[in-house]
Amino acid sequence: MKLAVERWGVAFQNPVLLAAGTCGFGEELSDVVDLEALGGFVTKSVTLEPRRGNPAPRVAEIGPTMINSVGLANPGLARVRSEKLPWIRAQLRRARVFVSLAGRTVEDYLELLEGLDGEEGFIGFELNLSCPNDRGRRPFALDPDAAARVVAGARARSERPLLAKLAPNDPELADTVRRVEEAGADGITLVNTLPGLALDAARGKPLLGAGQGGVSGPALRGLGLLAVATARSVTALPLLGVGGIVRAEDALEYLLAGASLVQVGTASFADPRAAERIVHDLERWGRRSRVASVDDLVGAAVARPEPLTTTAAGD
Ligand code: RRO
User: Fold this and answer.
1) Ligand 1 centroid, distance to 71 Cα (angstroms)
2) What does the CA dihedral 94, 95, 96, 102 come to, rounded to 10 degrees?
3) 22, 42, 43, 45: which to mutate for ligand 1, most atoms within 8 A of CB?
C-alpha cells in the first residue's frame, strides 16, 4: 500500500501527523522525533498575546488515560512569527505543518489569521474551536453560529486549507459539521479532549492545578471513531481523526471510519516516537495487504455521504 496521499492539492508522504499540543512548534521535539519521517504536525494553539497557561500540575496520568489543563500556554503571535516559523522554514522540507489558532472572540481568530497568512513554512490553519480549558468558557464548537462565524471570517481572509477542530461532547455533531462546511471549512479535525475531572482521594483535591481538564488517551478512541463516522455520513470533506491512536491498527480504524489523515496525540507523551512507529508499522502492514492506497481504506467501514439532493418546493 502506498502511504503517500494528496489532500487539498498538497502531497503528504504519509497520513500520520502529530496532534496540536503534543509537539509545541516542532523544535521542542526535534531532538527525539524525526519530524521529517511524519506526514506533518499541528502546532500548539497560538493566541494573540503570549499565555503562561494554568497552574501546575497541568497534566496527570491515570493509567493509560491522560487529563490536561495546560491553559493555552504559548508564546503568542509575535514570537510565533519571529521565532517559531523561521525554525520550521529552516529545518523542515517534507513534514507539512498546520498552525493551530485559538481565540476568545471571533475577532481574535481573524486577527491571528491576518497576522500569519502572509508567512511561509506552513500549509494551513487548524481553527481550534474546542479547547475545553479556557476558564469555563463554552467552546465555539458547541455554539454552531459562533463556530460558523469564525470559519466564514477565516475563509474570507485566507485561501489556505482551513481545518475546524470540533468537540467530542457535541450532541449535534452532524449539524455542526454541516455548518462549518457551509461556512467554508476545507477539513474537519475530530476530536479535541473530553472535559473531565480527576481527583486525588488521598489528598482530597483535584489532580490538576486548574481543577478540571480534558481527558485523552485510548478511552477517547471510541468517541473519536464515532465522531469521524458521523461526520463522514454528512460530508465529503477530508476528516482528520484524532483520539486514542496508539498503534497502527488504531490509525487504520480511523481511516476505515472515514478519516483522510490521522493525528497522534497522547501516545506521544508516553513515547515521543509513537507516531514514527505507527508510520513504520503502517508501512509493514501495507506491504502485506492487497490495498493499493490509503484512499481505498478511507471510509470503507461506514456509509458514504448521500449526494445532496434538491427538495422540490412544497415537500
Ligand atoms: O491548552 C490546553 O489546555 C488545551 C487545549 Br488549547 C486544547 O485544545 N485541548 C486540550 O486538551 N488542552
Assistant:
1) 6
2) -160
3) 45
